[in-house]
From TrEMBL:
This is Protein BONZAI 3 isoform X2. Gene3D superfamilies: C2 domain (2.60.40.150), von Willebrand factor, type A domain (3.40.50.410). It holds the Pfam family C2. It is found in: Cell membrane. It comes from Prunus avium (Cherry). Belongs to the copine family. Residues 330-549 form the VWFA domain. Coiled coil: none annotated. It is a lipid-anchor. It comes from the Eukaryota. GO terms for biological process: cellular response to calcium ion; defense response. Signal peptide: none annotated. PANTHER family: COPINE, PROTEIN BONZAI 3.
Length: 575
């Protein structure tokens, strides 16, 4: 849902050229099944989508569309497979984010595609957290996956329908879906582009250029694979490096189209120029330190050039490559014992232990996250702390051992955490305030110590809380210091508090965290989910918290140039 004053920052971000590579299926899930002797027979596919003539529900601008893809199960229920990015002000969008699906020949796999117009106020919110009930429904298409893959072009165009529309006969546009098989390869290329002497397309300022890169396919069309960020007010821009996997660019000789646009918030981006080059051509440009002239939409002659300032090949190992080689995920948990949770003896308390076995939100988060992560931890001994409680010695502690021990903070398995938590509710009085700094520092200390003795451990701290932070800046400082350590922090918010502070710590929709001394976090290590979203059925705890964990793990390994423990050159990829 656009608007002439819409916040366009989300539309200026890069898409598809991140270090983590393209979207893939859940490596952790596949590894779990394979380790238990189950070898699913499937081909991994990526779905690319574009639309034409979408319904325009906005008054002063065009719709801001996003696609959500579902698999329809045998019981009729829909399982969400993924979402595209939001494209601002466009009735004919071409999305870059792909949705991954396992194609199984022996099964009928019905797919449902929902297209939404995303409200302006959500443009800087990660698409995976958007509440779809808050967005305008533009239309729906459906087909079987086999209908797509059996087409010669592996693409299918669907007429969108809208059963909820009561405005008489109306065309809702079309959605084209294309399927491509993923390539099991670690090969990638990192490229840094710049341009010089771009034509100024703006009247009162300079152009705001960005590059869009597309791959030409056999049918003669092209598929966008990457978009750089927008560089504001600059006719000689240098963009951040993009990392393209072989899955994206195909081969070094595959022709790629490079289009330079001037960004406009109304969605009508103005083409400055375009060229067609392969990765092999780019390598030559880089070695010769020469630029190449753009071809212009008009017959005019210009001086605009594209340069390759950096280009090198690299191997991108998958999450599975590391885990199967011996890397471990070590689970840690910290539980909020502040008074705002309510008296644990009252059924209204967030800490109430139900005598009939129904789990409270704290227990649910511990069990669901712990049972997934413990699979990747050899000894299954987990550090467990509480914070904000008055311990048996009468003092309020913001990092005490959950098991009551003065020296040993580890417990045995997920059941050990659950037992220590239940016992602590009888021995620790709820107090406050809510401080994260000490538990983050404690987890960081353990992660830091491991570097001197072993390089095969990555730590995951789960913090479960109901309240508003009193030490927001101190927590930011601790997280920034920890951002170059093998550590991720998962935060679950329980109850109905305002969790805007947690969304600040989870830097998905904003800048990276900055410490009080001005240091910027090396990487994003925080993921937050509100339990009320889980209870409303929008997401599961595991989905909300662990979706980004493999990417955070990989960002650390790649930033430290760490390879799988048993990797040998020429070894085939496991992903």
């Amino acid at each position: 849902m656009g608007g002439c004053f819409s916040d366009v920052r989300g539309g200026k971000e890069a898409v598809g050229g991140a270090q983590a590579g393209p979207t893939v299926h859940n490596d952790a899930v596949e590894f779990f099944y394979r380790s238990h002797g189950a070898f699913p027979l499937f081909s991994q596919l990526e779905l690319t989508m574009s639309a034409s003539n979408l319904l325009d529900l906005d008054v002063t601008s065009k719709s801001d569309p996003m696609v959500v893809v579902y698999a329809k199960k045998s019981d009729g229920k829909l399982e969400e497979l993924g979402r595209t990015e939001v494209i601002l002000n466009s009735l004919n969008p071409v999305w870059i984010e792909k949705v991954s699906i396992a194609y199984q020949f022996e099964m009928v796999q019905p797919l449902i595609f929902h297209v939404y117009d995303v409200d302006t106020k959500y443009h800087n919110v990660p698409v995976k957290t958007l509440n779809l009930r808050d967005q305008e429904f533009l239309g729906e298409g459906s087909c079987g996956l086999s209908e797509i893959v059996t087409k010669q072009t592996r693409s299918l165009t669907l007429n969108l329908m809208n059963k909820n529309w009561h405005g008489g006969m109306r065309k809702f546009g079309t959605l084209t879906v294309r399927a491509e098989e993923t390539i099991a390869s670690r090969s990638a290329v990192e490229i840094k582009f710049r341009c010089s002497h771009l034509e100024n397309k703006d009247l009162f300022s300079k152009s705001d250029p960005f590059l869009r890169i597309s791959r030409i396919v056999e049918s003669g069309g092209s598929i966008p694979i990457c978009k750089t960020e927008v560089v504001d007010n600059n006719l000689n821009p240098t963009w951040k490096p993009v990392c393209l996997s072989m899955q994206q660019f195909g081969s070094k000789d595959t022709p790629l189209v490079f289009e330079c646009f001037d960004f406009n918030s109304n969605g009508d981006h103005v083409l400055i120029g375009k060229i067609q080059k392969s990765v092999a051509d780019l390598e030559k440009l880089y070695k010769e330190r020469s630029g190449v002239n753009f071809v212009f939409p008009t017959s005019r002659q210009g001086h605009e050039k594209l340069f390759v300032d950096q280009l090198f090949e690299k191997e991108q190992f998958s999450f599975l490559d590391y885990i199967s080689s011996g890397y471990e995920l070590n689970f840690m948990v910290a539980v909020d014992f502040t008074g705002s949770n309510g008296d644990p003896r009252s059924p209204d308390s967030l800490h109430y232990i139900d005598p009939y076995g129904r789990l409270n939100s704290y227990q649910q988060a511990i069990r669901e996250v712990g049972e997934v992560i413990q699979f990747y931890d050899d000894d299954k001994r987990f550090p467990a702390w509480g914070f904000g409680g008055r311990t048996t010695n009468g003092t309020v502690s913001h990092c005490f051992n959950l098991n009551g021990s003065a020296s040993d903070f580890e417990v045995e398995g997920v059941e050990g955490i659950m037992g220590a938590y239940a016992t602590a509710l009888h021995n620790v009085s709820l107090a406050g305030p809510t401080l994260f700094g000490l538990v983050v520092n404690k987890a960081a200390e353990i992660a830091s110590r491991s570097l001197s003795s072993s390089n095969n451990k990555y730590y995951v701290l789960l913090i479960i809380t109901d309240g508003i932070l009193t030490d927001l800046q101190e927590t930011k400082d601790a997280l920034v210091r920890a951002s170059n350590l093998p550590l991720s922090v998962l935060i679950v918010g329980v109850g109905n508090a305002d969790f805007k502070q947690m969304e600040i710590l989870d830097a998905d929709s904003g800048p990276r965290l900055e410490s009080s001394t001005g240091r910027i976090a090396t990487r994003d290590i925080v993921q937050f989910v509100a339990m009320r979203e889980v209870h409303s059925g929008q997401i599961s705890v595991v989905q909300g918290l662990l979706e980004e964990l493999p990417g955070q793990f990989l960002s650390y390994m790649r930033s430290m140039d760490m390879k799988p423990l048993t990797f040998h050159a020429g070894q085939p990829s496991t992903s």
